[in-house]
Amino acid sequence: MSEAFTRILLALRRTTSSGRFLPEIDGVRFLSISWVVLFHTIGQVTFKFHQHLPDSRFWQIIGAGDFGVWIFFCLSGFVLALPFAEWRTCGGKPVRLKRYYLRRLTRIEPPYLVNLTSVFVLLPLLARSHRGYVQEAKHLVASAFYLHGLLFHRTSSLNPVAWSLEIEAQFYLLAPCLALLFLLKSTPVRRLALLTAIALLGFTSGLLMFPIWRNTLVPFLPYFLAGFYVADLYCTSWNRAPRRQLRWDLVTILTAVGILIFLLPPVNTLHYVDNSFRLGKVPLAFKIFLPFLLIPFLVGAFRSRIFQRFMTLLPVTVIGGMCYTIYLYHLIIIAAITRPLFKLFKSGMALEPQLWITLALAIPAVVVLSAVLFALIEKPFMNFGAAKKTLVVRLAHLHHESVGETG
């Protein structure tokens, strides 16, 4: 990489309030957001022309890319559990709940509100049908408070992908209570409790998938708890310094294959291949075993050699660190790219060339525009506390200088 490009990437790298940076996490975020963006990009074409994806494993894998959101849930479980696990199991720094919740508010909420407000204002340009600002205002308010799914029982008309952010918000509120599990002193008992909870929640949510549950944390909690389990491993078994071994590359590959087996036909014939996922009708095995498979997959990101090296490449971690901005804006960018293309596609072009053209144009646009939006909107809020302290110090310094000059 050139020196100038490296400087740009370093300027875009995510900052953390704790000062600790785990590049493997952003590496897995890169995989997750890439899968989601690929999935939504091809979905624009198949949905528009009411077509099924080409019958090949490659397109079926991309067509299962919504599972990237489930991987995000597992990562959130790991990231939020880690400070609690360090505190309770390693004698680390105590977690202050006021700071915990304030951090979530100042880090997550401002970029989200900017996104919702921007979409709301530009809705006549973005939406195929605009019902008017008065009608959309209730969706704006409900989405801003992460209540749209609970109140309207469907995705937000302003940003459909925000459904997962509402699930994340429920988890943020509940995570400190779930983290009381780390008070259990016995490591085997604690881990057995986590594994039992994952299995039972997966089993019950699979059997009792009532519509009222669909927009709650309940059916997704096993994925968050899988992240809790890896956080326990990180703090106790690895002593916060995982040792990398080549055998974990093999484990990661086998785990990825296992995940795909559950996601693709013939095991999962009801999953999206035509953009018509029927929530709650996936096989029971999907709900029980997939959270367990994410545990060795996430472990592999830390303990493998080749996979870990890829996960920690600078471009990979930078794009992964921008995943929140990419997630918020990628649908809008993809829609803007594909609308002019649809006129070309109506001329009778075969589906597979349509998909490749769309991917070739949309993916670079998503990355570049998201990088700009990330730098302008999200990055300033990543370490809000430190920025506020710096501002106070600078203002105090300026005040001291002005007093000295007038004196």
What's a concise summary of this model?
The protein is mostly helical and 407 residues long. The chain is built from 18 helices and no strands. The chain has one domain (3-406).
> Quick one: overall form?
globular
Q: What is the terminal separation in angstroms?
A: 54 Å
Content-based structural category: mainly alpha
Q: Which stretches of 5+ consecutive residues score pLDDT under 50?
A: 271-280, 390-395
Helix coverage percent of residues?
A: over 70%
Report the major sheet: none
Number of continuous helical runs: 18
What fraction strand?
Answer: under 5%
> If you average the pLDDT, what whole number results?
87
Helix-strand topology string? HHHHHHHHHHHHHHHHHH
Number of domains: 1
Total strand segments = 0
What's the alpha carbon Rg, rounded to whole Å? 22 Å
Task: Write up what this structure looks like.
The termini are far apart. Helices cover 72% and strands 0% of the residues. With 407 residues, the protein is mainly α. The chain has one domain (3-406). It is globular. It has 18 helices and no strands. α10 (187-207) runs antiparallel to α11. It has helices spanning 3-12, 23-48, 57-63, 67-90, 97-121, 123-126, 133-144, 148-152, 163-178, 187-207, 221-237, 247-263, 284-303, 306-311, 314-321, 323-345, 351-378, 384-406.
List keywords for this structure.
407 residues, mainly alpha, 0% strand
